[in-house]
Amino acid sequence: MGIDGYLQLEAALVKHLESYLEKVDNEQETISSYLTDIDSLHEHMHSPEAYYGNPINAFLTINRFAIIWKHEIFDVLLANRTYSEYRNAVEGELNKKKLNGPTNEDLLIAAENLLDMQEFTRIPTSELANEVVLRDYNTDQNVTLSASECHSIGSNFYELQSYEYAAQWLQQARKLASLESSASASAIKIRILEHLVLVYKKLNSLKLAYKLNNEILKLEPKNEAALNNKSLLETQLLLDRIRIAKVTVNEQMDENHLEL
């Protein structure tokens, strides 16, 4: 390899290393911010009984273990070689103290409690979503539910077959996600839209499901699930139009017979 080749190789190494370091910095900033929020929550929680008496707080705590710690913290760290050392230390500590984190089943139970509360109190979803769940003492601002948390509530309500409430929470998540501009914003938007498509199919709102499915394809043209849904929804919408046309014709024929 000549000097020119070495220079090209070096330029490529610099390019990829800079990209890697930028990614690591972004990941570290995101994780550090999250850890700061959790530290603040623990520090200023004067009465755990009162805090967890609110079903939203109980849900969010379990959601942190079942979703956020796994997907937004541990999965991010998986790409880091030092993760194995960290994981071994954590596993050793958990085994030593015989601790187990909550399961998805626990999360579903927490969601069911939250659903029961919302159905009983009739508090609007938008009001619950804007409830203060944390005080950021660094910025002296209140923290409300994030797009990811609203999405988690909505997706669990979907599992509980409460489709109307699921739609409300997922729409709230969609609204919040539209305000985010982080590197992961596009991914969360797609996950929210995917669940909304499922919900509106259950609610038989096929036109809305089709519209939202097309939004997924705008964000990710090769999304396999959305491409499959597109064909299925187009077929269902066509069959609905044929059925409506037949009903209209039959009604018109009945009217003509009555006139005779």
Automatic annotation (TrEMBL):
GO molecular function: procollagen-proline 4-dioxygenase activity
InterPro entries (UniProt xref): P4H_N, TPR-like_helical_dom_sf, TPR_P4H
Gene Ontology CC annotations of this record: endoplasmic reticulum
Domain Prolyl 4-hydroxylase peptide-substrate-binding: 148-234
Matches recorded under Pfam families: P4Ha_N (PF08336), TPR_P4H (PF23558)
Matches recorded under Gene3D superfamilies: 6.10.140.1460, Tetratricopeptide repeat domain
Limits of the Prolyl 4-hydroxylase N-terminal domain: 4-133
Protein name per the record: Uncharacterized protein
Lineage, uppermost ranks: Eukaryota, Metazoa, Ecdysozoa, Arthropoda, Hexapoda
